[in-house]
Design brief:
Four copies of one chain form a homotetramer. Chain A is mainly α. Chain A is built from five helices and no strands. Chain A is elongated. Chains B and C meet through helix 2 and helix 3 of B and helix 2 and helix 3 of C.
């Protein structure tokens, strides 16, 4: 089942009110799950390339971005006793991690590295989803 | 985008051969992402219930299961220099965590706790997906 | 063995140069490990209290802080192809998470909740260690 | 402060009884923190080596082992509503991950790769600490 559906079912069952824009929240959680997965696999794909030496920066940023997306997905999934300062700072860190990783992956994607191309797309999507949620939070 | 699609794109781009059954692998990675998310939200939902005192065991198992599913999703996502012993042991631990958490969530789901009902379903699905991948690995 | 010793041994063995102030780096990695552990245990301790209902906010912030400290510890542990933007944003998010969690734990610590008192101390220490590393990075 | 001290302070403040052998528990939690850190740094060190191509298996097992140790440290840190089946399965998976990673690191450590030598030691120590806790649980 898509993660977004799981998120929607769980949000429907949330026992209190919550103020966050629901579709933006769902999209952000899904984008974090997607990007964390893409980065974990891209790091692994890079390790299998003959040109691994040239992909060291990509692997490093993949690992950072996978960790940061996983943490962000968890933090924004929690509605109880929501703390706007924490959510904002975490989203900002995730945006930065996605941008750095996306930039690096894009460079290799432009030179035919297909997993980097796909991963760059997920980084851009996650960066945008975090930006949108951040803007909605204010 | 569903996590399963991200996984498929990334597996298409994997530079080496891999021996694992592809559809079972995709389903397992997606089920781990779903279950980790469901457990993170179920713990949070339980914290917002008036009856939180009675849900302490559920929260605890949700936290364990969320962590174990996240780790399992990462380990099985890595194809490079695959180590069957590690994969097997990690899948077995994930199966056990999903079963314990699923049993506890089901008890509360049967008493009208909707988020526990949904979470129990994800635990069962993840347990099954890990079992199927484990059987395929042999 | 203390984590700080492991970190020192590993930094001694790092094959390239790195520019970060070594003692500040070691202290930050250790503080992240300590605070992540304290928060994981504090959430668990709160779940075992009769007054769990009043500790819901504390548990929620413990979970966020544990996740954010774990990710920060990993990001700052990586020296290869260091990206100052990512490190800075991650440290800032960690500082914010530690401050919110520390404030909430302190309130309960002042009312006799010993695990919250200890956890608040670790949050303050980690916040400071991240601040110091951030200042050194510039 | 060493993680072991944080753990001891937090266990002193735990509001209920717990049955696990205290020194074995403290040692296991500390060993998981140490090994997770060592593996995170060893993967990063390997990425900085000229011979990164020959260290791909080491990096992959480092990543698995770091994730599994982090999850194990969290699961065994939780005392509330302790579930022996989950703890056992998680410890077993951690033992397997530490053994595979320790074996691979040792091979490179024997050939002068100092960070692999240190990391292998932490893997052995963590494997033993998990074995001891597993034996005590029965």
């Amino acid at each position: 089942m898509p993660v977004a559906e799981v998120v929607r079912h769980m949000l429907d069952a949330y026992p209190r009110e919550f103020n966050v824009d629901r579709p933006l929240l769902v999209r952000c959680i899904e984008a974090c799950a997607d990007c964390s997965e893409a980065c974990t696999q891209c790091a692994d794909d890079c390790l299998s390339e003959h040109s691994v030496q040239e992909l060291v920066k990509c692997i490093r940023l993949n690992l950072d971005c996978a960790d940061m997306c996983a943490t962000t997905g968890r933090v924004v999934s929690r509605q109880t006793e929501y703390d706007a300062n924490v959510t904002r700072a975490v989203l900002q860190a995730c945006i930065t991690a996605c941008r750095s990783c996306g930039d690096e992956c894009e460079r290799h994607g432009d030179h035919g590295m297909e997993h980097c191309r796909v991963c760059a797309e997920e980084c851009r999507r996650c960066e945008q989803a975090c930006q949108d949620l951040l803007a909605a939070i204010g």
